[in-house]
Amino acid sequence: MSQTLRVMDTLVHQLRDLATSLRAAEEALPDEIRGTDGTGAVTASLGRAGDVTGIDVNADWSAHLDPTALGAAQTAQIITMKRAASAADAFPNGAWPVGTV
Fold it and tell me: For residue 35, which of 44, 26, 23 has the smallest C-alpha distance?
């Protein structure tokens, strides 16, 4: 077998291993992810499919946030950070398979 074929064979195996790790991580994600902003005033929930399932705002939110901070950008930031953390936690040993490809 030529060097090129060996390298391609290795790459195919690494890609299969990565695909297996990604499937396992996806299956390990919880059905719902909840994230709260730094002030504790806004909590956003995201479903497994990536859909927003809820946005809860504490009654005393105005003591912690300016009204402009209640916008979609704040909610999106909460969800994005929480989802990224949950995805990272879903990998075996909590490690993203960096360097496997």
Answer: 44
**Residue at 4: amino acid letter:** T
CA distance 73 to 101: 34
* Angle, helices 3-28/72-90, rounded to nearest 10 degrees: 120
What is the number of residues in the chain? 101
- Tokens read off for 71: 């916008």
Q: Enumerate the domain spans of the chain.
A: 3-93
Give the residue carrying structure tokens 């919880």. 30
CA angle 53, 21, 1 (to 5 degrees): 150
- Token duo for residue 30: 């919880």
Q: Where are the alpha helices (DSSP H) in 1-101?
A: 3-28, 72-90
Is the CB of residue 38 less than 8 Å from the CB of residue 81? Answer: no
- For 72-88, the pLDDT digits (tens) are 656 667 777 777 777 66
* pTM, 2 dp: 0.51
